[in-house]
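User: Teach me something about this protein's shape.
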Amino acid sequence: MDIQTVERQLKKIPSVKEVNIIPPPSNYEAFIYRWTNLNTNRKYLGSHKGEIGDSYLDSSTSKQFKKDRASSKGNFKFEIIQYGDYEEIKTQETSILKQVNAAKSKDYYNKHNGGGGKQQYRTLEIMELVDGIKSGEFEVTIEPIDDIYPLGKLQVREEQLNTTLVREIKERINDKAGNTDLCEPILIYESRVKGKDVIGNGNHTITAAHYSKDAVDIPVMRIPLETHEGYSNIELRMVSNLMNKKDEVVREAASTKDAEKQLLAVYVNSNLPANDSSNIELLEEMGFTHNQIKKTIIPNATEAIEEKRLEMSNQIFVKYDSHSSFHDRLQGTVEELKDSETFSCAYSSEFVKLAEIQKKFRLAKQLKKNLKHMRIVIHHPKPSSVDKWKTDKLLHQDEIDYWILSHEDVESFEWVVMPHLVENSLVN
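Assistant: First, the predicted structure itself:
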């Protein structure tokens, strides 16, 4: 059901004056919603496993909430603020409610702080399904491309489609006059989402076949509901990644970005740190090298996990790069610090170059002869940079004392560190 129809239905409730529903993704299991009494600003926050417009309103047991919303004098706003996998949504709901202690708060109708949603990350079960798929346990059939292409997708990739790979597969299919016998079967989980089939793996292949001028049918491997219903979406995505090991050439190999996102999702659902042995074992199964795991995937996933941990604690890590909405704030701070006697510029705490700073100061002093104070604005590019800066700052001090403050043109030097955390408005 489209958002406009849902909004119209909700506004038929006399007390509902505002409706704000963010657009849903094509594939989701659940969502977080919020009712706000605009007269008192009291809220009810909950989650629902289902889709928007399925007649669900809430699961509240608060008689006061029901009474206030049913009143002809009521003034309520309804919002849907997040979509996702069921376990992730339940975890986020609990995090938000615990952060504000909703069960004890006069600002909330909620009587409890949620019930979590975490489940264990089951390596043995994942490998069992992968082995079953690879060993031919499930029959491969030939089905019309037009029936398969419109199905929803379970697979989530950092880059949704590699157009170069799609073009290459399409050309190979065209070279064989539309024959798709050599294509890896499209993996389909039957009745996975709301009774509908979902594509678990093979997005590039089915897209290429769809746009091929000659292809009509495609090999398909169907996984019955009774086989996959006990698996979470996050586990089935790991199955897909394991099917796309690095040494495969017919499909797109899982990238390090895919692996990092997988470890983040694992943390959300099971609290496993990125460097947990079960994660490393699965990364090795996916074909990643030791260096890729230790030097790229684990460090990057650890940073992403820390950002997620902060977010779930009602905080967001602030990035000030040129693509960030906070970049203007960084530049504004630099400009505010500048005056006829003060030089200022900005640096990432990971890439401070004192020799370069001195050069910039000398060039600026040629235009402003009275410059004598240096204010260097520091921002942290990632969570681990915060603690690292405490050490790096001390290491820089000897150079500052010897090369900068000893110079007759400089009277003072100061680091100005930008805030690295802001409140997460999601819970407001």
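Now, about its shape. The longest helix spans residues 290-312. Residues 246-251 have pLDDT under 50 and may be disordered. If you'd like, I can walk through any region in more detail.
User: That's plenty for now, thanks!
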